[in-house]
């Protein structure tokens, strides 16, 4: 293994992001830390409002007013993007070395420009290609994502394509400059189940063939199981569990992870009623002092009112839970 492979491609350390609203300061990310290695797919899962999208938008330099990064560090290829020079750096690499696939292609693609114009714009801006070379590369990219008649599609507008084809155009645009990291923010949410499966299969194939690193944000644990090497579970602006995806699925350590897995429908088991996690996520204007999940947790105890940091329970597994920590102490 080379030094390049050992060093993380992306490292986020203790990221804190606040949003200043009339109702108060919303703590969107409360000390988020994670790493993405070269060629690795990291899945980030959690309920709406848990801080998944906020964390990756910070990586892309997309936190705008009323949001603000309060503290922490974000390092891409060993270089911090948090100071003034770093912000200039992330503007240069955004779309070129780091690209993003957004949730809804119909609102992400510009309706007044053709597909060809939008893909070639990326190539001409970042790679300084001329018009002819950019068009040729755009056709290659559409073929790469399995869009038929690419010459015809380049002349069409987004509304003339199906939802699945629009998402493939988004993926082609993300791949245009051969990035080292792709962030996919719930890329299948707006699609029907059949098209979802096709897009996920395409992403898995491209990740393997191109050896690109991927951050996959989703509500769907099935997507994580299919695509991801590692899994980070987020709740109330924090990562509460992180580790090898297979091991987390086999033996979840945090009660919230257990709840998510328990609430996932199974084909091999018929239930009269679906399992759910009782209660609601906390208000991030005034989050609980201790474990944010404790008001909904059946395993909660007195010490859960005290802050608990993300701690190793095995060599490559971290859980932010007093119960998991106590269980680990008994095992030792």
From TrEMBL:
Instruction: Quote the subcellular location field of this record.
Output: Cell inner membrane
What single Pfam family name could you report for this chain, choosing any that match?
Answer: oligo_HPY
Record GO biological process: peptide transport
Q: Output the PROSITE patterns linked to this UniProt entry.
A: ABC_TRANSPORTER_1, ABC_TRANSPORTER_2
Domain of life where this protein originates: Bacteria
Family matches, as InterPro entries: AAA+_ATPase, ABC_Ni/Peptide_Import, ABC_transporter-like_ATP-bd, ABC_transporter-like_CS, Oligopep_ABC_C, P-loop_NTPase
Listed GO MF terms: ATP binding; ATP hydrolysis activity
Q: What is its main location?
A: membrane
Pinpoint the ABC transporter domain residues.
Answer: 10-261
One cellular component term from this protein's GO annotations in UniProt: plasma membrane
NCBIfam families with a match to the protein in the record: oligo_HPY
Q: Which family does it belong to?
A: Belongs to the ABC transporter superfamily.
Q: What is this protein called?
A: Peptide ABC transporter ATP-binding protein
Please give the organism: Dethiosulfatarculus sandiegensis
What lineage does UniProt assign to this protein's organism? Bacteria, Pseudomonadati, Thermodesulfobacteriota, Desulfarculia, Desulfarculales
């Amino acid at each position: 293994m080379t030094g390049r492979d050992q060093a993380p491609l992306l490292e986020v350390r203790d990221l804190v992001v606040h949003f200043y609203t009339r109702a108060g300061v919303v703590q969107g990310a409360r000390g988020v830390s994670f790493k993405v290695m070269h060629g690795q797919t990291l899945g980030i899962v959690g309920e709406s409002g848990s801080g998944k999208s906020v964390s990756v938008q910070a990586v892309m330099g997309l936190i705008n007013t009323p949001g603000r990064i309060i503290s922490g560090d974000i390092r891409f290829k060993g270089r911090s993007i948090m100071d003034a020079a770093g912000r200039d750096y992330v503007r240069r690499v955004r779309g070129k070395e780091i690209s993003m696939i957004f949730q809804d292609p119909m609102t992400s693609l510009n309706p007044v420009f053709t597909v060809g114009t939008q893909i070639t714009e990326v190539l001409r801006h970042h790679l300084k290609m001329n018009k002819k070379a950019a068009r040729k590369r755009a056709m290659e990219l559409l073929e790469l994502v399995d869009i038929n008649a690419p010459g015809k599609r380049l002349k069409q507008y987004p509304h003339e394509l199906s939802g699945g084809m629009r998402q493939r155009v988004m993926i082609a645009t993300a791949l245009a400059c051969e990035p080292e990291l792709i962030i996919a923010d719930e890329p299948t949410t707006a699609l029907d189940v059949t098209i979802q499966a096709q897009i996920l299969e395409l992403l898995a194939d491209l990740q393997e063939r191109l050896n690109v690193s991927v951050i996959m944000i989703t509500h769907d644990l099935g997507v994580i199981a299919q695509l991801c090497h590692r899994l980070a579970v987020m709740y109330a602006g924090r990562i509460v569990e992180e580790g090898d995806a297979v091991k987390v699925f086999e033996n979840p350590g945090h009660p919230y992870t257990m709840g998510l897995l328990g609430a996932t429908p199974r084909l091999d088991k018929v239930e009269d009623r679906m399992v759910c996690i009782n209660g609601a996520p906390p208000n991030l204007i005034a989050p609980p002092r201790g474990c944010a999940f404790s008001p909904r947790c059946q395993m909660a105890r007195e010490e859960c009112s005290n802050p608990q940091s993300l701690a190793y329970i095995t060599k490559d597994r971290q859980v932010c839970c007093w119960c998991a920590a106590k269980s680990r102490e008994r095992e030792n």
